[in-house]
Amino acid sequence: MSKPSPTNPAPPTRIGLIGFGCVGQGLYDILQRHPEAGFTVARIAVKNPTKLRPLPAGRFEFHADDLLDDPTLDLLVEVIDDADEAFRLVSRALRQGRRVVTANKAMVARHLPELIALQREFGGTLLYEAAVCGSIPVVRTLDSYFAQEPLLQVSGIFNGSSNYVLTRMREADSDYAEALAEAQAQGFAETDPTLDMAAFDPRSKAVILAAHACGLLLDPDAVLNLGIENVSAADIRYAAERGKKLKVVAILQPLPGGGATVYVTPQFVDADSPLYAVEREFNGVVVDAEFAGQHFWRGRGAGGHPTGSAVLADLVALRHGFRYAYAKLPAETALTAEVPDLELEVYLRSAPAELRRALGLTDVSEQLSAPGFTYDYAVGYVRLSQLHRYRDALRAGGTFVARTGRVRPVVAQPAPQLETALAAD
């Protein structure tokens, strides 16, 4: 058999593409523009046969399992929205020993222990750089470059949609609804913005990074996520008056002796933080390593071409035999049961009195509250576990919560219960 050469090049790597939305189209366009990359999209499976698409109808088929059963396809790319269907397809492909790329962060975060176990048992490979922060190569960097180095903290802005809304609220002195409508019109936010604005999307990304940065497999439901659905122009002005900006920031904080604290909330960011200048739809990731010091990456966190470029990078890596090492994970892949507790200093605006007492706000350093005021707030310490417990009540009550950035160990007294606080009335 003749070897590939400039006059006898290797045949293109054949890809089976499942999904042809924003990311799928972005990847297809990149590969069409750069045939020298050596990939060809041989088959495309989609769900809806009546949807208009920018390719001839004959290029599409409607049974994704047929692609999994095609031995002529070298690599599979899954870029659909349905996390449950994505897991069914990806897990089946891994049981076949296939090589797969996915961009579905909710699926990976929810099922990472099973996905790792399937790779180990059947020999397949799954890469998912495109699932976290779009074009920023953070997953492979943590998995490979920082495989052995202890990390002090990983933090960042992991969602471009909410970051765009906060940027526009500050720039235009507008309210949340107006900025969100603009983000939707620009294509930076979905018609149903819940996953982005309520911080479920960055929570999934934080859970994925915890496996590579801290060696932890977390249940997403155990990780606090507070979003910006209740943010107001007054909150933006409060930050600006103090020389800060509001950002939705994810924190992964490894703890001495093992474990880590992981949470995602709005935070007042100081001007000396690398995240201060990350605006609009951009993402930013800060890694503080014990020996290498601080590293910072900024890049587009979403969009067809930025995310498609991450898929392409994974395809090239698969072709060269790369797989994640998970060097910091134990041999067993069971979920870590609990996220350790901390006390966080928070800005709490428009919290009903009973909910504020239930949260156990202590050491209040600043507050504004008077009859007739439509804007009232307090700054004090709350346990992370209490914020998690009453997350839904905070959202439903119209309360906005943002961290100041200060944290401390948990004080040893029990936090009050909402039922007790209500009974005190």
TrEMBL record:
<keyword id="KW-0028">Amino-acid biosynthesis</keyword>
<dbReference type="InterPro" id="IPR036291">
    <property type="entry name" value="NAD(P)-bd_dom_sf"/>
</dbReference>
<dbReference type="GO" id="GO:0050661">
    <property type="term" value="F:NADP binding"/>
</dbReference>
<keyword id="KW-0486">Methionine biosynthesis</keyword>
<keyword id="KW-0791">Threonine biosynthesis</keyword>
<dbReference type="GO" id="GO:0009088">
    <property type="term" value="P:threonine biosynthetic process"/>
</dbReference>
<comment type="pathway">
    <text>Amino-acid biosynthesis; L-methionine biosynthesis via de novo pathway; L-homoserine from L-aspartate: step 3/3.</text>
</comment>
<dbReference type="InterPro" id="IPR001342">
    <property type="entry name" value="HDH_cat"/>
</dbReference>
<protein>
    <recommendedName>
        <fullName>Homoserine dehydrogenase</fullName>
        <ecNumber>1.1.1.3</ecNumber>
    </recommendedName>
</protein>
<comment type="pathway">
    <text>Amino-acid biosynthesis; L-threonine biosynthesis; L-threonine from L-aspartate: step 3/5.</text>
</comment>
<feature type="domain" description="Aspartate/homoserine dehydrogenase NAD-binding">
    <location>
        <begin position="19"/>
        <end position="129"/>
    </location>
</feature>
<dbReference type="Pfam" id="PF03447">
    <property type="entry name" value="NAD_binding_3"/>
</dbReference>
<dbReference type="GO" id="GO:0004412">
    <property type="term" value="F:homoserine dehydrogenase activity"/>
</dbReference>
<comment type="similarity">
    <text>Belongs to the homoserine dehydrogenase family.</text>
</comment>
<dbReference type="GO" id="GO:0009086">
    <property type="term" value="P:methionine biosynthetic process"/>
</dbReference>
<feature type="domain" description="Homoserine dehydrogenase catalytic">
    <location>
        <begin position="137"/>
        <end position="316"/>
    </location>
</feature>
<dbReference type="InterPro" id="IPR005106">
    <property type="entry name" value="Asp/hSer_DH_NAD-bd"/>
</dbReference>
<keyword id="KW-0560">Oxidoreductase</keyword>
<dbReference type="Pfam" id="PF00742">
    <property type="entry name" value="Homoserine_dh"/>
</dbReference>
